[in-house]
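Appendix B, example 12.
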Amino acid sequence: MRQYKRIGILGGISPQSSALFYKKIIEKHYQKYKDHYYPEIVMFSVDFGKLKDYQNNPDQTDYINELVKGISILERAGADFAVIASNTPHRVFSEIEKRTSIQLLSIVDSTANYAIKNGYKKLLLLGTAYTMKEEFYKNGLKAQNIHAVVPSEAEQEMINNIIFNELILGDVENQSKNAVLGIINKHSVDAVILGCTELSLLITDRDTDIPLIDTTDVHAEATLNFAIC
């Protein structure tokens, strides 16, 4: 029988994406093995409202502490390694990693590895305002010789509003879909990073001919592969 490491998922950032991330791991296992011997999974769902408040503070100490606390709970629950089922907290991934004793898998690394595998060199990065404005994602890709571009500031604000006012609530609006597709079609890139795990609720491969890197899907695949002993 296959042996798995126990997976720890830090979720709740947001609940919509966490549920989708868990579901994808299970589906991918079944697609690969056609059985129900799924890996053991422990999930801790953080207080999303508290984290949203903390991430708006110039001092990120409380934000980091809350994420580290969540990882520590997963470790005490027996997780052998952990993943964060959200892109935005990876802005402080290196700080979290320094303060945890179990191994963490980075969604930025999973995305970069997927881009390398498919020969993508220039990517459009979509996500929350933090993901698009800050350098953590761009620098992670640049380290692998991948260039990331982002929409204009006005477009970034619009995408951020769609994420927080609609997608986090499970609300998918055709008007918002068309607006994001309009932004995608303006750029000449090899692929588009759906760099917020909720964006895969809005945009799928059926909506555009430009390849999409669904970070929820890519990170779920990497998590399942890493779990195999």
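The chain has a mean pLDDT of 95. The chain has two domains: 7-106+217-227, 108-214.
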